Amino acid sequence: MKKRGFPLKMNKAEEREIERILSGLKSDPRVLKMKNFRQHGKVSTYEHCNSVMRLSYCLDKRFGSKADKETLLKGAMLHDFYLYDWHHKDNGTHDWHGFIHADRALKNAEKYFNINDRVKDVIFSHMWPLNISRIPKSREAWIVCLADKCVSLYESVFLR
Ligand SMILES: [Fe+2]
Ligand SMILES: [Fe+2]
Q1: 80 CA → ligand 2 middle, Å
Q2: First CA to last CA across the chain, in angstroms?
Q3: Which DSSP string corresponds to 9-47?
Q4: How is the chain split into domains, by residue range?
Q5: CATH topology of domain 36-86+95-158
Q6: How far is it, in rounded angstroms, from Cα 71 to Cα 116?
Q7: What is the CB neighbour count within 10 angstroms for residue 28?
Q8: Of 75-84, 86-95, 111-120, 150-159, which gets the smallest average pLDDT?
Q9: More confident site: 11 or 159
Q10: Contact by Cβ (8 Å): 72, 122
Q11: From CA 26, how far away is CA 23, in angstroms rounded?
Q12: pTM of the predicted model over 0.85
């Protein structure tokens, strides 16, 4: 199957570090469920989260921002863990997707995984500035918020 990710090159050591930090999480059956839902264009929510996670990792390295990698990568991988297809009009429950999905993602992440407050904040604030009052509070949350915007724009324009 064709891979639809944000174009990023990493070396073997970087790939190994990501694998080590996210071992278990990336292949967890509940996380893999995100492959069943469409995010932007032909891209699944899983592919989107994976791209945001990889770009977050690269931005942190490029900026030398010294983010806590575990917080950064887990938060990025789970930032859209809301587990539904927002394109389906489910009796109007998805009408406010842009505003509500961070809460749904956070609820699922708390239910299935033992995540700390910093990871929770990454998920909670990733839709700033749409969710205007949820200003990211940490460097990890800022990086994921920025990476999400870049990846979403790329997917919407080039992977339709
Ligand atoms: Fe999102
Ligand atoms: Fe996203």
Answers
A1: 5
A2: 16
A3: ---HHHHHHHHHHTTTTTT-HHHHGGGGSEEETTEEHHH
A4: 36-86+95-158
A5: Hypothetical protein af1432 (1.10.3210)
A6: 8
A7: 13
A8: 86-95
A9: 11
A10: yes
A11: 7
A12: yes
